[in-house]
Amino acid sequence: MPVVPGERIGIIAGSGDFPFEIASSIKRAGNDVFIVGLRGFAERGVRLFPHVYADMLDPHCVLDALRKRDIRKVVLAGGVARPGPMALFSIYTFFRNREELRRIVSGGDDRILRGVVRLFNEEGFEVLGVDQVAPDLLAPLGSLGSVQMNDESKPDIELGLNCLATMGQFDFGQAVVVGGGRVLAIEGPEGTDAMLRRVVELQKNRRVSFEKPCAILVKASKLHQDRRVDLPAIGPKTVQSAVKAGLIGIAVAAHDVILVEKARLLRDADRSGIFVAGVKA
Amino acid sequence: MPVVPGERIGIIAGSGDFPFEIASSIKRAGNDVFIVGLRGFAERGVRLFPHVYADMLDPHCVLDALRKRDIRKVVLAGGVARPGPMALFSIYTFFRNREELRRIVSGGDDRILRGVVRLFNEEGFEVLGVDQVAPDLLAPLGSLGSVQMNDESKPDIELGLNCLATMGQFDFGQAVVVGGGRVLAIEGPEGTDAMLRRVVELQKNRRVSFEKPCAILVKASKLHQDRRVDLPAIGPKTVQSAVKAGLIGIAVAAHDVILVEKARLLRDADRSGIFVAGVKA
User: pTM to 2 decimals?
Assistant: First the structure.
């Protein structure tokens, strides 16, 4: 069920400024927000909005805070470290089926997040995606910065999108680096920044070399990715890593990838001379 | 054309002991060998066989040494560093089509090797694969060491083989690490050892965690891989890296992957308690 005009949306906020970007977007659209800041993760910007703090490992507290305010729709946003085995032990009592929790936690990111969504659903909440509550944070189609994408990059971007689409069946690969007609790296659980550091190494060790810079980061959501909790994102740090890796641009699937701190991201990209573009997946 | 009994086979030898393992295997089969050791790469074992030295960047010298001995069939074996741009410049004069060489050298490993094979072919030589001249160096089907593979590993190995088969279309992935029903890493141009170091990091940073060790290295040749020059291989170093990464075993496609220094490889695997098995791809 979509957001009803004037409705109050709950944001479960981990680290980073992204939860507040969502909050601002929701308010711009004329709706209301309430933030549950996860203790130890949520940043100070929480205080700019109505909020409480709660412990990630105490789901009762999170759910009660929402129920008390009659909030039924929530968005999950921001980073949280994966809890260690000891920390998880304390959360076990909350779950009806410990075996299931164990399976969830030892599974891929998708599985963990699907588990969290199911928990909210079972408790009567609806988990909305960023694309539903703050669609203006997603990359639109076309050039986003002032640097234009070259036509020569198009076959590589096609290759990257094709590779990502193919890898989705393995719950693997939210991003690839492509260049000169080849796939250079596929992102696994290590994340985009670690993959881009690998691309630095590949060139340093002459495992790959180019006549002229041509490598591109291509990012899109995975085939069965749950858009409610895990839309892919790029931010200023992605631009920084991309520049270090000698890339000439970043292509993201339009209406599918979040631009975190968009203004800074595009300013940094412009200054570094790399393109950022939303492309048809 | 297969090897004629008693025929003399040329081995173009890069670094490592593998060229000599091939030479020994060829002799065991009753055929003869002559080694062209690439200067700066070929190791001292060259001296155990009839040989000359030649410069990798001087194809004339390599080809003349073979022609002088009436050798028409060659095997390429051992490692060579990818030559730098300046070194390559000197080889340019040899090639009719510089643009083509440039394309070859900036392409994937497959393309470089296909280029070398084409060069030999154009000069009237036949390039044979290790599987043709020394099939006893390939992994057979079944358990190879004394540690047995557990039945629980079978679905993960299936997943790994399936993932490799799928990735072949992108000329990417000669190996994957799988465990607990997920793909953890796919090997790119960085090579198997670097991928296994990534798996160490994934666990250290808790990007992946397991209740009990279950991760497996799965290796097979790529879909369009040229079996004459680039059969995948595992050796003692692979075992060492696999143990460091906390893996429980190595599964290789039977009759498709070379076992380098097989005796030491299996002894090390047995001592470390990890399985090595040839599986049906």
Answer: 0.82
